[in-house]
Amino acid sequence: MIEVTNLDKFYGAFHALKNIDLTVHQGQKVVICGPSGSGKSTLIRCFNGLEWHNSGRLVIDGIEVYEGAKEIRDLRQEVGMVFQQFNLFPHLTVLENLTIGPMKVRKISKAQAEETARNYLDRVHIPEQADKYPAQLSGGQQQRVAIARSLCMETRIMLFDEPTSALDPEMINEVLDVMVELADTGMTMVVVTHEMGFARKVADTMVFMEAGQIVEISPPEQFFTNP
Ligand code: ADP
Ligand code: ADP
Protein backbone atom coordinates (compact mmCIF):
# COMPACT_ATOMS: atom_id res chain seq x y z
CA MET A 1 0.00 0.00 0.00
CA ILE A 2 2.78 2.40 0.99
CA GLU A 3 6.28 1.97 -0.33
CA VAL A 4 8.97 4.42 0.76
CA THR A 5 12.43 4.01 -0.70
CA ASN A 6 15.47 6.08 0.11
CA LEU A 7 13.37 9.13 0.86
CA ASP A 8 14.90 12.46 1.87
CA LYS A 9 13.18 15.69 2.79
CA PHE A 10 14.59 19.13 3.50
CA TYR A 11 13.04 22.26 4.96
CA GLY A 12 15.40 24.76 3.42
CA ALA A 13 18.82 23.61 4.57
CA PHE A 14 17.37 21.52 7.40
CA HIS A 15 17.50 17.78 6.70
CA ALA A 16 14.15 16.64 8.16
CA LEU A 17 13.95 13.08 6.78
CA LYS A 18 17.05 11.03 6.05
CA ASN A 19 17.10 7.99 3.85
CA ILE A 20 13.72 6.62 4.92
CA ASP A 21 12.79 3.08 3.85
CA LEU A 22 9.42 1.72 4.91
CA THR A 23 6.81 -0.62 3.50
CA VAL A 24 3.22 -0.77 4.73
CA HIS A 25 1.03 -3.59 3.45
CA GLN A 26 -2.74 -3.59 3.15
CA GLY A 27 -4.38 -3.97 6.54
CA GLN A 28 -1.16 -3.33 8.41
CA LYS A 29 -1.10 -1.15 11.56
CA VAL A 30 2.09 0.82 11.91
CA VAL A 31 2.75 2.94 14.99
CA ILE A 32 5.46 5.58 14.69
CA CYS A 33 7.01 6.94 17.84
CA GLY A 34 10.09 8.88 18.81
CA PRO A 35 11.05 12.21 20.33
CA SER A 36 9.42 15.49 19.35
CA GLY A 37 11.04 16.96 16.24
CA SER A 38 12.28 13.58 14.94
CA GLY A 39 10.27 13.84 11.71
CA LYS A 40 7.24 11.63 12.43
CA SER A 41 4.70 14.22 11.38
CA THR A 42 6.71 15.23 8.32
CA LEU A 43 6.89 11.62 7.17
CA ILE A 44 3.17 10.93 7.32
CA ARG A 45 2.40 14.34 5.82
CA CYS A 46 4.35 13.19 2.78
CA PHE A 47 1.93 10.24 2.53
CA ASN A 48 -1.01 12.45 1.58
CA GLY A 49 0.74 15.26 -0.21
CA LEU A 50 0.77 17.83 2.59
CA GLU A 51 4.57 17.80 2.29
CA TRP A 52 6.77 16.72 -0.57
CA HIS A 53 9.97 14.72 -0.43
CA ASN A 54 13.06 16.00 -2.23
CA SER A 55 14.55 12.70 -3.30
CA GLY A 56 13.89 9.00 -3.18
CA ARG A 57 10.63 7.32 -4.07
CA LEU A 58 7.16 7.16 -2.59
CA VAL A 59 4.43 4.96 -4.06
CA ILE A 60 1.02 4.76 -2.43
CA ASP A 61 -1.56 2.30 -3.65
CA GLY A 62 0.13 2.28 -7.02
CA ILE A 63 0.31 6.08 -7.24
CA GLU A 64 3.77 7.53 -7.71
CA VAL A 65 3.80 10.54 -5.39
CA TYR A 66 5.82 13.64 -6.23
CA GLU A 67 5.20 17.36 -6.23
CA GLY A 68 2.98 18.29 -9.15
CA ALA A 69 1.83 14.72 -9.91
CA LYS A 70 -1.57 14.71 -11.62
CA GLU A 71 -2.73 11.83 -9.46
CA ILE A 72 -2.52 13.75 -6.19
CA ARG A 73 -6.31 14.18 -6.14
CA ASP A 74 -6.65 10.41 -6.41
CA LEU A 75 -4.12 10.05 -3.61
CA ARG A 76 -6.19 12.24 -1.30
CA GLN A 77 -9.22 10.06 -2.00
CA GLU A 78 -7.21 7.01 -0.94
CA VAL A 79 -5.51 8.46 2.12
CA GLY A 80 -7.34 10.13 5.00
CA MET A 81 -5.69 11.98 7.84
CA VAL A 82 -6.72 12.75 11.40
CA PHE A 83 -4.82 15.60 13.03
CA GLN A 84 -4.00 16.57 16.58
CA GLN A 85 -6.27 19.61 16.20
CA PHE A 86 -9.50 18.22 14.85
CA ASN A 87 -9.67 20.59 11.86
CA LEU A 88 -13.46 20.59 11.61
CA PHE A 89 -15.26 23.49 9.93
CA PRO A 90 -16.58 25.52 12.90
CA HIS A 91 -19.47 27.10 10.99
CA LEU A 92 -20.84 23.75 9.77
CA THR A 93 -22.81 21.21 11.80
CA VAL A 94 -21.37 17.77 12.42
CA LEU A 95 -23.55 16.32 9.67
CA GLU A 96 -22.47 19.06 7.25
CA ASN A 97 -18.82 18.48 8.13
CA LEU A 98 -19.29 14.81 7.23
CA THR A 99 -21.23 15.28 4.01
CA ILE A 100 -19.55 18.20 2.28
CA GLY A 101 -16.44 16.26 1.25
CA PRO A 102 -18.17 13.12 -0.07
CA MET A 103 -20.77 15.22 -1.96
CA LYS A 104 -18.02 17.17 -3.69
CA VAL A 105 -15.31 14.60 -4.15
CA ARG A 106 -17.28 11.38 -4.51
CA LYS A 107 -20.14 13.17 -6.26
CA ILE A 108 -22.87 11.43 -4.31
CA SER A 109 -26.27 12.92 -3.53
CA LYS A 110 -27.01 14.77 -0.31
CA ALA A 111 -29.36 12.03 0.84
CA GLN A 112 -26.78 9.36 0.19
CA ALA A 113 -24.05 11.37 1.89
CA GLU A 114 -26.25 11.90 4.95
CA GLU A 115 -27.07 8.23 5.21
CA THR A 116 -23.38 7.38 5.08
CA ALA A 117 -22.58 10.11 7.61
CA ARG A 118 -25.19 8.89 10.10
CA ASN A 119 -23.91 5.36 9.70
CA TYR A 120 -20.36 6.44 10.60
CA LEU A 121 -21.57 8.64 13.47
CA ASP A 122 -23.10 5.44 14.87
CA ARG A 123 -19.77 3.70 14.39
CA VAL A 124 -17.96 6.34 16.47
CA HIS A 125 -20.78 6.24 19.06
CA ILE A 126 -22.10 9.79 18.72
CA PRO A 127 -25.25 9.45 16.56
CA GLU A 128 -27.01 12.09 18.69
CA GLN A 129 -24.53 14.85 17.83
CA ALA A 130 -25.37 15.17 14.12
CA ASP A 131 -26.94 18.63 14.31
CA LYS A 132 -24.52 20.21 16.77
CA TYR A 133 -21.67 22.54 15.88
CA PRO A 134 -18.09 21.45 16.69
CA ALA A 135 -17.74 24.01 19.50
CA GLN A 136 -20.69 22.36 21.28
CA LEU A 137 -18.82 19.04 21.49
CA SER A 138 -16.07 17.84 23.79
CA GLY A 139 -12.59 17.36 22.34
CA GLY A 140 -13.05 13.60 22.34
CA GLN A 141 -16.34 13.93 20.46
CA GLN A 142 -14.79 16.34 17.95
CA GLN A 143 -11.95 13.94 17.29
CA ARG A 144 -14.44 11.12 16.72
CA VAL A 145 -16.24 13.36 14.22
CA ALA A 146 -12.88 13.88 12.49
CA ILE A 147 -12.42 10.10 12.30
CA ALA A 148 -15.96 9.68 10.97
CA ARG A 149 -15.28 12.36 8.38
CA SER A 150 -12.33 10.43 7.09
CA LEU A 151 -14.42 7.24 7.02
CA CYS A 152 -17.13 9.02 5.01
CA MET A 153 -14.52 9.66 2.31
CA GLU A 154 -14.10 5.86 2.10
CA THR A 155 -10.33 6.17 2.09
CA ARG A 156 -8.32 2.95 2.09
CA ILE A 157 -5.51 4.20 4.31
CA MET A 158 -5.85 6.28 7.45
CA LEU A 159 -3.07 8.39 8.91
CA PHE A 160 -3.23 9.69 12.47
CA ASP A 161 -0.93 12.48 13.66
CA GLU A 162 -0.95 12.43 17.47
CA PRO A 163 -4.74 12.16 17.52
CA THR A 164 -5.03 12.23 21.31
CA SER A 165 -2.34 14.78 22.19
CA ALA A 166 -4.72 17.72 22.36
CA LEU A 167 -7.29 15.89 24.48
CA ASP A 168 -7.99 15.98 28.19
CA PRO A 169 -6.95 12.67 29.79
CA GLU A 170 -10.51 11.44 30.36
CA MET A 171 -11.25 11.73 26.63
CA ILE A 172 -8.22 9.91 25.33
CA ASN A 173 -9.66 6.44 25.76
CA GLU A 174 -12.92 7.15 23.97
CA VAL A 175 -10.88 8.11 20.90
CA LEU A 176 -8.41 5.23 21.22
CA ASP A 177 -11.32 2.78 21.60
CA VAL A 178 -12.76 3.97 18.29
CA MET A 179 -9.34 3.57 16.70
CA VAL A 180 -9.06 0.02 18.03
CA GLU A 181 -12.49 -0.77 16.55
CA LEU A 182 -11.34 0.73 13.26
CA ALA A 183 -8.21 -1.40 13.33
CA ASP A 184 -10.43 -4.47 13.78
CA THR A 185 -12.21 -3.64 10.50
CA GLY A 186 -8.97 -4.25 8.61
CA MET A 187 -8.20 -0.61 7.78
CA THR A 188 -4.59 0.14 6.87
CA MET A 189 -3.39 2.54 9.57
CA VAL A 190 -0.27 4.57 10.22
CA VAL A 191 -0.42 6.21 13.64
CA VAL A 192 1.97 8.71 15.19
CA THR A 193 1.37 8.50 18.92
CA HIS A 194 2.94 8.39 22.35
CA GLU A 195 0.15 6.09 23.59
CA MET A 196 2.11 2.90 24.11
CA GLY A 197 -0.86 0.99 25.55
CA PHE A 198 -2.67 1.54 22.27
CA ALA A 199 0.48 0.57 20.34
CA ARG A 200 0.80 -2.73 22.22
CA LYS A 201 -2.82 -3.54 21.54
CA VAL A 202 -3.03 -2.58 17.87
CA ALA A 203 0.36 -2.29 16.19
CA ASP A 204 1.81 -5.07 14.14
CA THR A 205 4.84 -2.91 13.38
CA MET A 206 6.59 -0.36 15.57
CA VAL A 207 8.74 2.34 13.98
CA PHE A 208 11.08 4.42 16.09
CA MET A 209 12.40 7.68 14.67
CA GLU A 210 15.21 9.90 15.86
CA ALA A 211 16.66 13.02 14.23
CA GLY A 212 14.98 12.40 10.86
CA GLN A 213 15.92 8.74 10.64
CA ILE A 214 14.15 5.47 11.24
CA VAL A 215 16.33 3.80 13.83
CA GLU A 216 14.17 0.76 14.48
CA ILE A 217 11.40 -1.19 12.77
CA SER A 218 10.21 -4.19 14.74
CA PRO A 219 7.17 -6.15 15.84
CA PRO A 220 5.73 -4.88 19.16
CA GLU A 221 6.72 -8.06 21.06
CA GLN A 222 10.32 -7.27 20.29
CA PHE A 223 10.02 -3.49 20.52
CA PHE A 224 8.61 -3.52 24.02
CA THR A 225 11.11 -5.98 25.43
CA ASN A 226 14.24 -4.23 24.12
CA PRO A 227 16.26 -2.57 26.87
P1 ADP B 1 7.71 15.26 14.96
O1 ADP B 1 6.41 14.98 14.31
O2 ADP B 1 8.54 14.03 15.17
O3 ADP B 1 7.56 16.06 16.22
P2 ADP B 1 8.12 17.04 12.76
O4 ADP B 1 8.02 16.19 11.55
O5 ADP B 1 6.95 17.87 13.13
O6 ADP B 1 8.58 16.14 13.98
O7 ADP B 1 9.35 18.00 12.61
C1 ADP B 1 10.66 17.51 12.31
C2 ADP B 1 11.59 18.67 12.25
O8 ADP B 1 11.31 19.47 11.11
C3 ADP B 1 11.51 19.60 13.45
O9 ADP B 1 12.82 20.05 13.75
C4 ADP B 1 10.65 20.74 12.97
O10 ADP B 1 10.97 21.94 13.62
C5 ADP B 1 11.03 20.79 11.50
N1 ADP B 1 9.91 21.28 10.68
C6 ADP B 1 8.67 20.74 10.62
N2 ADP B 1 7.90 21.43 9.77
C7 ADP B 1 8.67 22.42 9.27
C8 ADP B 1 8.44 23.47 8.33
N3 ADP B 1 7.26 23.62 7.74
N4 ADP B 1 9.48 24.30 8.07
C9 ADP B 1 10.66 24.15 8.68
N5 ADP B 1 10.93 23.18 9.56
C10 ADP B 1 9.96 22.33 9.85
P1 ADP C 1 3.48 18.16 15.37
O1 ADP C 1 3.65 18.22 16.86
O2 ADP C 1 2.16 17.61 14.91
O3 ADP C 1 4.65 17.55 14.69
P2 ADP C 1 4.46 20.81 15.16
O4 ADP C 1 4.00 21.56 16.36
O5 ADP C 1 5.83 20.28 15.07
O6 ADP C 1 3.38 19.66 14.89
O7 ADP C 1 4.22 21.69 13.87
C1 ADP C 1 2.96 22.31 13.61
C2 ADP C 1 3.04 22.99 12.26
O8 ADP C 1 4.13 23.91 12.22
C3 ADP C 1 3.29 22.02 11.12
O9 ADP C 1 2.49 22.40 10.02
C4 ADP C 1 4.75 22.14 10.78
O10 ADP C 1 4.97 21.91 9.41
C5 ADP C 1 5.05 23.57 11.17
N1 ADP C 1 6.41 23.72 11.70
C6 ADP C 1 6.99 22.95 12.65
N2 ADP C 1 8.27 23.34 12.87
C7 ADP C 1 8.48 24.39 12.05
C8 ADP C 1 9.61 25.23 11.82
N3 ADP C 1 10.79 25.07 12.46
N4 ADP C 1 9.48 26.20 10.90
C9 ADP C 1 8.33 26.37 10.25
N5 ADP C 1 7.24 25.62 10.42
C10 ADP C 1 7.29 24.64 11.32
TrEMBL record:
UniProt xrefs under SMART domains: AAA
Note the InterPro entries from the entry.
AAA+_ATPase (IPR003593), ABC_ATPase_HisP-typ (IPR030679), ABC_transporter-like_ATP-bd (IPR003439), ABC_transporter-like_CS (IPR017871), MetN_ABC_transporter-like (IPR050086), P-loop_NTPase (IPR027417)
Which family does this protein fall into?
Belongs to the ABC transporter superfamily.
Write down what this protein is called. Amino acid ABC transporter ATP-binding protein
**In its keyword annotation, does this UniProt entry include Transport?**
yes
Q: Kindly name one Pfam family recorded for this protein.
A: ABC_tran
Please list the residue ranges annotated as the ABC transporter domain: 2-227
* Highest classification ranks of the organism: Bacteria, Pseudomonadati, Pseudomonadota, Alphaproteobacteria, Rhodobacterales
Give the UniProt keywords, A-Z: ATP-binding, Nucleotide-binding, Transport
MF annotations from Gene Ontology: ATP binding
